[in-house]
Amino acid sequence: MVQVTSPAFKQNAARAMADVGLQKALGTAKGAFLQRRAVAVANLPEFERLRDIGRDIKDHALANLDHYLERYAQAVERAGGKVHWCSSAEDARAAILRICRDAGARTVTKGKSMISEEIGINEHLEAHGIAPVETDLGEYILQLRREHPSHIIAPAFHLNREDWEADFRRMHTDLPKDRVFAERRDIMVEARTKLRDRFLAADVGITGANFLIAETGSSVIVTNEGNGDLTQTLPRVHIALASIEKVVPTLEDATSLLRLLARSATGQDFSVYTTFSTGARREGDLDGPDEYHVVLLDNGRSNMLGTEFGDMLRCIRCAACMNHCPVYGAIGGHAYGWVYPGPMGSVLTPALAGIERTANLPNASTFCGKCESVCPVKIPLPKMMRHWREREFERHLTPAAQRRNLALWRYVAQRPALYRMATRAAVAALGLWGRGRGAVKSLPLAGGWTEGRDLPLPERSGAGGTFMAAYAKQRRQNGHAR
């Protein structure tokens, strides 16, 4: 497993908010996702009903996961493919390396796959003399920069057009000096000139899978660039790399989820390319690989089944949660420190890497609830982040001072008379402390809180200035008994 840097989340976030280029990219990209999704949802009257259907499909598949995985594996083998069962990232890396060596591979092309990031396959192949080539436009530029994706569907979300141009001029040494990159098309043309030969030279192609269909043994991949199709059909060997929760029972189930996926992700009715792959090339087929392999990864997911985090396995990787998250929108994806950023990463990463290494992530939320409201399969992300906070507290991972303060607050809150007295005293003290200043800019014992924000002064009123006093007064005015 690659190094998880989420213990440094606070420092990462501070750097991200001070990064002018990143803030420009986030401001430009995020709005387009939100607007397009809103239009797509408004144009589909049955969208809410479809969310219920999608949730139920995934829940049924997860409740019977062993059955559908076995059916899927049997269907793959009937179609001439082979399934490799991998319980860990190490197992998956070993299986892929073995397939590549058996094929005599020197070059491997890759279609976008977050699972490949999860297991660190690029670094593993390079260490064994095999060159991986990213073929997704965003992934390609990140490979040139030696960076990891910052978003699960738009990997170069954090870059501006001038960043692309600068990296092309730095890495493509034969680029004419008078070449202009005025539009996105110019970027695509330049990348295509380099990637075309790589597609033709590749011995093995690796793609992810949005869904695995138990009924037919098919893997499904959606793209907008066509690189997934070229990666699957041109090399002699195709490897579909997927995690176990991607399996769904039938073709009909897959198409129902596809209706949710693109609308939630990019605001399209469907992605430009939606490709179903079933086994190796058969006699009479015009294209396709000679060998078809599926590397199925668990890597801790089976431990989530039947727990308070099991709903996370419904995720179809649309990224709607992070597109709408105010925290992600302020700091981008790299601050989260691993493969999966945003709200879904704040739940999934602790499950895969351990809460001991990732405790900052479930706390990186305003709990506005927007992530749950836009999730196409209704994953209760805020509730699961609260569960991780509970685990963090139970294991004494929170700072001692925070635990002491919470214990003090609990003691006072459990005693109503003491609570009322304490809040009245606090309101009076804040009024004196901030007199003539309009707001409290620093507080003793709360410097960490006021370092980044001012504390508004409480409203002064004849009711005593506390919420409870104001509420009691309003009830009396409305004719209610105390």
From TrEMBL:
Keywords: 4Fe-4S, Electron transport, Iron, Iron-sulfur, Metal-binding, Repeat, Transport
Lineage: Bacteria, Pseudomonadati, Pseudomonadota, Alphaproteobacteria, Acetobacterales
Organism: Craurococcus roseus
PANTHER family, alphabetized: LACTATE UTILIZATION PROTEIN B
Protein's recorded name: LutB/LldF family L-lactate oxidation iron-sulfur protein
Record-linked SUPFAM superfamilies: alpha-helical ferredoxin (SSF46548), NagB/RpiA/CoA transferase-like (SSF100950)
Top-level taxonomic group: Bacteria
4Fe-4S ferredoxin-type domain sequence ranges: 306-336
